[in-house]
Structures are given as C-alpha cells and as structure tokens.
Amino acid sequence: MAKSESGLVFAEDNSRWSAVQQRDVHADGCFVFAVVTTGVYCRPSCPARLPKRENVRFFTTSALASEAGFRACKRCLPDEAPLVTRQAALVEELSRFIETTLDDQQKAPTLEMLADRANLSRHHLHRLFKSVTGVTAKQYADAYRKMRVQRDLTRKASVTQTMYDSGFNSSGHFYSQSSSRLGMTPGQYRQGGAEMTIRFAVGQCSLGAILVAQSERGVCAILMDDDPHALVNDLQDRFPKSELIGADKDFEKIVAQVIGFVEQPDKGINLPLDIRGTAFQQRVWAALQKIPAGNTVSYSQLAQIIGSPNASRAVAKACAANPLAVAVPCHRVVRMDGGLSGYRWGVERKRALLENEMKAKKR
C-alpha cells in the first residue's frame, strides 16, 4: 500500500488521480502516472499540462512504468528522489554547515554564503530553508547557538568563557538573549536552575495522575502518567537544581483548574504560561492554542497554518516536545486520514481528551 510521509494513503486510482490534479508533492514517491498519448510517465507533482483522465495509467513504481513501455518525463524527473526529499537533503547539508561554521568560527554564515553554497538566489534560499525547517537560517543559527550555550554552561569553567565561545562579543547582549531563551539567567542554568523556585502539586483525574508546576513566570509544566512518582522524577530531571516546593492550598486551586479543564473542556483554561522552546516550537505551540476544543488538524495542515507547508515532520517533533499537556493542546493534531498517531502521554489519553471535547462541543 502506497503511503506518503504525511500519512495519506494512495491505494486507489481515485485518490491517485486527485493527487495528480492537485500536483500534491506529498504523493511523490508513492506512485507514478503514465500518459498513453505521449508515452511518458511522471511523478504526481509534475507541473506539465494535466492530461485527460482516460489517457492516464498508474504504476506503483517507475520500474513498472518503464517495463510497460513508458519513458521518464524530462521535466519532473520521476526516477530521481522527490523534489521535497532533495530540498530536505540540501537544507540538511546547509544546517550542518551552519553548525560547523559556528563551532569553528563562533560566527554564523551569512545568507549570501549559504545561497552561494546551494547555488540559489538569496531570496529562494531564504524561502526554501524556512519552508523545510519552519525557521529562517538566522533563527536556526540562533537556536543552535542557544543549544551550545545550554551545553557549554554545564561543562565550562565560567559563564564568561561560554559567552565568548558562543560568539557573543557583548556581555549585555549575551545575558539579555540567554535569559529570554533559557528562561533564567546563564548562571542559574549552569547550576541546573539553581536559585529558581518551582511550586508543584500532583493530582488525580480520569486520565490518571497529573502534575502541574509553576515558576515565577507561570505554569511551566503539565505532565501526565499512571505513576505519580514518575511525574515528580520528570520534573526533577527538567530542573535538577531548582528548589521544588510542594504546593500549598492556593496553588492546589490551579491544579484543580487544570483537572477541571480535562474533565470539562468547555470550561476553558486561563492560566499564565511559562512556555520555553525554540522559535519554531513557539510558533507551533502558539498555533495549537488557537485550535478550538473539539476540532482537529493534521500535521501537514498545522504546518500550513504556521506558513511552513513542508515542515510537517518538524511540526510533529514540536508537538512531541510540548511540556504543557492540555494547555497547549497537541492532542488536537491527528494524521491526515484522521487516525490518532503517537502522543507523548499515550494514545489512549489522546483519544479520551478528544472524546471529552467532542461531547462538550455537542452540549
């Protein structure tokens, strides 16, 4: 059975013809279509003039089309890897080049340098990089620099050494950038969140145990599991040197609000959130919060919503990295065919959340 990476199945001629009509790049690699009047076979996304349906034949592979006497289209090159795959490979190579340049020179390559390397115009390279990764080349470099800061702060002898090794020439710029990205000062991060106070409490709901944690900025974690101890261990791993304080009665009201939202999603949830992530993750999580309860979107649809139609894989990874269950409703993202894919806190919890929301929507 032919299936695209986005999860859409192309098992029948009707769905294949629809993909050809839409020039769906997600169908590339799943099948080819041949035109009897020209003797040519093409990939589904071929930009050539659309043939008449009665002249089209479908084959699961290029080899089968060739054996049937058809020749490969010279425009869409169906025997080569799909365009999206080639583009992804190019961006992957450029991403490694950005990382290597930052490691060696503490300075990110310019867009012009990347465009020359890819033999593309700056404008085309900018659009391509963002469409594949969901972020610009500059944002990618910033995110990699952030990762280096996180790594090096736990390894190097001083924050100052980390600052210079990460390519920051100004301590003021380093501290302002790092504080917003790390959610704490560099010194605090280096010490595993030392001097931070995080209040938390564990409660029980119909989905099992649920932990809610709050920093000074807002709720920073909503975690679910069958085992309450596993939730506390997870929180400790996230903030190994923070001061974790079992919540008082006032904080338990917040936990009750989260549990109430799980049980009755039509009530809504209005809590200050301390959301920490990369620029791309922030975009995905912000879009998730705009999906109404009882509604679902596919990963590819969510990628389109955030303006990065080719970044469905990156969208799925951002959903998996979400630390705020229900508040950032990643459970509302499903496969293209409507099926439930993996969920950080278990597919059965995802199904239960969606069923509760559908019931509430009908009331």
Question: What do these coordinates show?
Answer:
The protein has 363 residues and is an alpha/beta fold. It folds into four domains: 13-80, DNA Methylphosphotriester Repair Domain (3-Layer(aba) Sandwich), CATH 3.40.10; 84-190, Homeodomain-like (Arc Repressor Mutant, subunit A), CATH 1.10.10.60; 197-257, 2-Layer Sandwich (Double Stranded RNA Binding Domain); 279-362, Arc Repressor Mutant, subunit A (Orthogonal Bundle). 46% of the residues lie in helices and 12% in strands. It contains 15 helices and ten strands. It has helices at 13-22, 62-67, 83-105, 111-118, 122-133, 137-153, 159-165, 171-182, 186-190, 228-238, 249-263, 279-288, 299-305, 312-320, 347-362, and strands at 32-35, 40-42, 56-59, 71-72, 197-205, 208-214, 219-225, 243-246, 297-298, 333-334. Strands 3-1-2-4 form a four-stranded mixed beta sheet. A hairpin with a 2-residue loop joins β5 (197-205) and β6. α13 (299-305) packs across α14.
According to CATH, the fold-level topology of the largest domain is Arc Repressor Mutant, subunit A
Number of domains: 4
Q: Percent of residues in helical segments?
A: 40-55%
CATH-assigned homologous superfamily of the largest domain:
Homeodomain-like
User: What is the N-to-C order of secondary-structure elements (H for helix, E for strand)?
Assistant: HEEEHEHHHHHHHEEEHEHHEHHEH
Distance between the termini: 40 Å
The tally of helices reads 15
Radius of gyration: 24 Å
Low-confidence stretches: 3-8, 153-193
The main sheet comes to: 4 strands, mixed
Number of strands: 10
Mean pLDDT: 80
Strand content: 5-15%
- Any idea what the CATH architecture of the largest domain is? Orthogonal Bundle
Question: Given this structure, which CATH class of the largest domain is correct?
Answer: Mainly Alpha
| Gross geometry | flat
| Sheet with the most strands: spatial strand order | 3-1-2-4
Computed structural class: alpha/beta
